[in-house]
């Protein structure tokens, strides 16, 4: 490949490599899917240290230009072509952020592809003919058993395979529980405020009325809950989404008292509890009241959203109704993937993957916090003991809208608390910065670009 570097000291070697590769991709000389030299080959060709090339590639991967995969030759990202061609002459392709700080997706570039492939192969080899037919709508017994063992061991969930239902992600799980509750006469469901808007829509579609319940640093507020007159409640107790608060022991006890007195149902969304960095993880609420709590989990944060795998542990009195809703929805989740996941769990692959990723995310979080402390001393950073994002609260007179706009112009996409309030929510301007998808070498530059965006809104 025709690349060259100059050693006249005017530009860093890595920057020269990045600029030339970025230019070649934008101008279409390097097409989507095209392979680029390995870091070792390019370092050799240019006579530079391999680290310089590794960092340049990591930057281009963070910007969306390259796809890096362990054991495979780096190549130009598949997403690049359409975007560049659809905006000819544009500087940065509009839809491709240089830095994606949205708190949504884990680092899917680290998905354990070869381990998953082995498990898929084994599933195809060992599944019986009968297992290729319509099965139990609750899901494959092998997976329900493997998950029950995993959830009991890792999250303290009182799970038995008979009361588990495998779903297409958390979202479907919440949907079928809400429909089952509505069919039994439930009318009002509490949601933490702020919370995930899509999940509120799922509950609304099931015919339930959304009731906002405020959240503070200790989690959901019990005084509001007492006044709310709800039949059910969706909660993220291990790591409130999106504030990052952990429901305190005192609130947990109060919540359980409310739950029993009211004979309500809690849907416990345990979406990212495996990521806890500074202390041991808090166990799931479910183990404390399994007859009134539906436990809901997902592989979307631990592995990848593309798997569309989730699970429920359902109280006995709701089991038939929720199983019926699952059956009506799709006659059951795809079986081959369920068998592959069962083997993946039984072989300890998920434990290994999480151990590896926890270390990686912790380093990214620590560097992000250092950079933010230096660059934005006026900000208060919260919610970083667990999960995959930080909440960054700014002084009252900062303008979230203007910051988002300026950040976008600098190639930084992020979300703010505004995206999660139940209208007409209010609160201090707060940025949500996901660090799962941004590699270490790109973090300082991303924070620099973000800070520049924030400062530019203060100069007007
Ligand atoms: C709060 C919360 N719960 C659950 C999920 C997982 O949803 P699903 O399993 O449908 O991908 C997400 C994913 O973004 C989330 O933000």
Write the layout of secondary structure elements.
Layout: H1 13-26, H2 39-46, H3 50-62, E1 66-67, E2 75-76, H4 80-86, E3 99-100, H5 113-126, H6 141-155, E4 164-167, H7 169-183, E5 188-193, H8 197-205, E6 209-216, E7 219-220, H9 222-228, E8 232-235, H10 249-262, E9 265-269, E10 293-298, E11 310-313, H11 316-330, H12 335-346, H13 349-375, E12 380-382, E13 389-393, H14 400-409, E14 412-413, E15 415-416, E16 430-434, H15 443-458
Parallel strand pairs: 3-14, 5-6, 5-8, 8-9, 9-10
Antiparallel strand pairs: 1-2, 4-11, 6-7, 10-11, 12-13, 13-16, 15-16
Helix pairs in contact: 1-3, 2-3, 5-12, 6-12, 7-8, 7-11, 13-15, 14-15
Bound molecules: pyridoxal-5'-phosphate (PLP).
Pyridoxal-5'-phosphate binds at residues 104, 169-171, 196, 236, 241, 269, 271, 298, 300, 305, 310.
Task: Describe the structure in your own words.
The radius of gyration is 24 Å and the shape is globular. The protein is α/β, with parallel strands linked by helices and 460 residues long. The chain contains 15 helices and 16 strands. The relative contact order is 0.13. The chain has an eight-stranded mixed sheet with strand order 4-11-10-9-8-5-6-7, sandwiched between helices. Helix 10 (249-262) links the parallel strand 8 and strand 9 (265-269). It has helices at 13-26, 39-46, 50-62, 80-86, 113-126, 141-155, 169-183, 197-205, 222-228, 249-262, 316-330, 335-346, 349-375, 400-409, 443-458; strands at residues 66-67, 75-76, 99-100, 164-167, 188-193, 209-216, 219-220, 232-235, 265-269, 293-298, 310-313, 380-382, 389-393, 412-413, 415-416, 430-434. Helix 1 crosses helix 3, helix 2 crosses helix 3 (50-62) and helix 5 (113-126) packs across helix 12. It has three domains: 13-95, Arc Repressor Mutant, subunit A; 113-347, Type I PLP-dependent aspartate aminotransferase-like (Major domain) (Aspartate Aminotransferase, domain 2, 3-Layer(aba) Sandwich), CATH 3.40.640.10; 351-458, Aspartate Aminotransferase, domain 1 (Alpha-Beta Complex), CATH 3.90.1150. Bound molecules: pyridoxal-5'-phosphate (PLP). Pyridoxal-5'-phosphate binds at residues 104, 169-171, 196, 236, 241, 269, 271, 298, 300, 305, 310.
